[in-house]
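Sequence design from tokenized structure. All designs in this work follow the same two-part layout: the structure record, then the generated sequence. An example of the structure record is given first.
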């Protein structure tokens, strides 16, 4: 099933998501195509909806270069790890953990071969989906230092919020007792 079909088949209660997808993804003017589709990819991956991720990646392959798609996947992977580690740091009251080295490899943060702003944007998006305030704060700061505006950042987060909600709806519909196989 194509991504457009998946979106069009969302239930009536998710009409706002369809409308937001149309305006924020299909008619987007705030993000470059690479920023937009990398954002859609990382948000779908972070949502953990297999159905959505499959269709998003298939669509993204028609827009993103193989290098950009690989970088988006790498951003989702590395932030999936980092968000757990650093979120633990802000959830625990034991300050000793913040003094301990992470000893986690993060080479992809410097070796991704795409625009640094785009990669940082995708790291921020995953961190927002995963609710890691340390990572959100860190990547938002780096983005602004690299010249990204609050409007650009906000545009990516709006897209991520819609993609995440679509994944939630798709998975909840599959889990519904009235869902058909």
């Amino acid at each position: 099933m194509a991504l457009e079909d998946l979106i069009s088949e969302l239930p009536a209660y998710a009409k706002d998501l369809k409308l937001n997808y149309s305006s924020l993804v299909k008619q987007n003017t705030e993000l470059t195509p690479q920023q937009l589709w990398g954002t859609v990819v990382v948000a779908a991956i972070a949502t953990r909806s297999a159905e959505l991720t499959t269709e998003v990646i298939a669509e993204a392959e028609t827009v993103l270069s193989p290098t950009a798609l690989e970088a988006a996947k790498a951003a989702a992977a590395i932030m999936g790890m980092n968000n757990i580690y650093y979120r633990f740091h802000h959830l625990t009251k034991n300050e000793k953990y913040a003094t301990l080295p992470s000893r986690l490899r993060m080479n992809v943060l410097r070796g991704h071969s795409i625009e640094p702003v785009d990669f940082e944007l995708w790291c921020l998006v995953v961190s927002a989906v995963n609710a890691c305030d340390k990572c959100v704060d860190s990547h938002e700061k780096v983005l602004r230092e690299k010249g990204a505006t609050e409007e650009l950042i906000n545009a990516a987060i709006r897209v991520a919020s819609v993609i995440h909600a679509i994944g939630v709806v798709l998975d909840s519909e599959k889990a519904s007792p009235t869902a058909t196989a």
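The mean pLDDT is 93. We note this feature because it recurs in several other targets discussed in the main text.
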